[in-house]
Amino acid sequence: MPVHAQDVDDLWKSLMARGLNEDNAKDYAKAELTYLQALKEAERFGADDPRVATTETSLGLAYRHQKKFSEAESAYRRALGIIEKTNEPGSIDVADANLNLAAAMVGGGRTAAALPVIQKALDVYESEVGGFHQKTADALCLEGDAYRLQKSYLEAEQPLRRCADIRQSNGGMSDLAFAEALHGLALAYMGSGKYALAEPRFTLAEKIREKNLGITSPLLAETMEDHAALLKKLGRDTEAARLNAMAAAILKTNKK
User: Fold this and answer.
1) Residues 220, 198 contacting (CB under 8 angstroms)
2) Cβ count within 10 A of residue 213
3) What is the CATH number of the domain that holds 53?
4) pLDDT, tens digit (0-9, with 9 covering 90-100), for 204-216
């Protein structure tokens, strides 16, 4: 590699490392700007260089953290196009790129369009790493959430159940990813009127999130609010009011 190209590559790596540190510090706006600088350096090697795909993938995550889902979708779509040119269709790298794209689409409300993209990733994961791998669980949870957000609650149940089972098997009963799956499954059950199945899953998700994240976690508050909505449907207004009050106190604390 010529000296000047080596210098550009070193600068790109330095910017990517800085962006990752900013991402880890949850300074997502700053990470976005850093990744955009890194993208300019990566593009010096050509529009389809693997460094461009890597940078767009990191940029997409920074956008998602800021709920800039349209921008995230564009970044992930470009990354996918590059990755597809250098990998077999059934490769894990292509599946990961499809799942990233689908997550941005679901976040932006494009759930129907995201479902076939999720299926592409899921097919590869099932074939290449098996039905009990964490990647398979991630695709199943995203599929279930996409159906749930479309109010297709019955269709959401099966992938969310599978996701929860895999995550429990891999991470145990105290795993945060398991709690996330439980929360989604509880919402699906509530949507389809299966309140007796939803209620214990909300309760367990709350316990796991409180244990891992603490009593001031916004994720715990989110579960409490959804659990309270279910309790109101069951006519348990006093319990619902208590949970809503606790959730409101948590959210107020986080705003300070």
Assistant:
1) no
2) 14
3) 1.25.40.10
4) 999 999 999 999 9
